[in-house]
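Complex 355.
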Amino acid sequence: MKKTLVLEVDSQEPQIEKIRIAADFIKKGGLVAFPTETVYGLGADALNSQAVRALFEAKKRPLDNPPIVHVGDVRDVYRLAKEVPSGAEKLMKKFWPGPLTLIFARSEIVPSVTVAGLDTIAVRMPEHRVALALIRESSCCLAAPSANLAGRPSPTMAKHVLDDLKGRIDTVLDAGPTKIGVESTVLDMAVDPPKILRPGGTPYEVLKRALTMVELHPVAVAEKDLAVDKARSPGMKHKHYAPDANMIVVEGKLSSVAGKVKELEEFYMRKGRKVGVLATDETVSYYRADVVKSLGSRSDLRVIAKNLFRLLREFDLEGVEVIIAEGVSTEGLGLAVMNRLRKASGYKIVKASRR
Ligand code: TXA
Ligand code: MG
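Predicted structure with magnesium ion bound:
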């Protein structure tokens, strides 16, 4: 067991002395959790293979699922990538710093463990001031997956990081809850046309406006477990975002969804299960389950994305055995929300339709 140091820092004007303490851990090969605008990440020096190995171990992450490398300066991309296509340069200018991860062919300087043996690398420049300050003060690029135990919902607060990783990491920089709440969009720029491997904080519609051609990889919109090509989307085959409870997602028109959720909640309650319903403001008063929570109003998918992982963790803390979740629109951030809900349920999806 390590002693995990908690450093509270200002999200707008991070105190440099605290950032330096965290950066010293990174320089010595240690592990530092830090906020980004999406979720908290767990950082290690991306070019130090021993530090990256410790990172996988702390998270209990399978070694075949590579982390994202976070940079503080666009020039670093040219060191990490063998080739930077002009389309990617355009995207970096427009969307960085921000919730967009780009996949490139990788250069020789990157240790094999950092990319899980692949010939590509995932890179992003986060927007959060604490993240940028840490990267710059550490004078290195940070390999940083989300700061949760593998398979658990991503952390949107320092408390979630500690719940999963206390005693396993050196320090966490606590700057309060993260703004976006779902992870970055992962866009493969090493194929033509570019493909979205994971929908996230930068919506598909926004990327479509910026690029002449961009496609959604089937895994990004999957409604069942797909057999995938490991080299293209290594993270897709692992269990993800899942609470301990069994989860069912009900999709369809809202009028039919609420009826179906109610039917399922009654079914499991009659069986004596502790039931949770993940609802929205429009429907929350309709349910009678043991624990009913609202993601927010359907009219603001940003709020829904921001609340998602926190609420999944809260159901676990309350000992819920079955979670029935309402599906939401797949527009904008909704596609990322639905991708996480479907995966968290292990693709237990019920289509509600009016009879
Ligand atoms: O918002 C985010 O992206 C957060 C914050 C901390 O930046 N990070 C994050 O990292 O979600 P992680 O490691 O939990 O997810 C990285 C995703 C995984 O699905 C992984 O499989 C994929 O990116 N990935 C990494 N390297 C890849 C590569 N070379 N080719 C394809 N996918 C890759
Ligand atoms: Mg993750």
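Residues 254-270 form the longest helix (17 residues).
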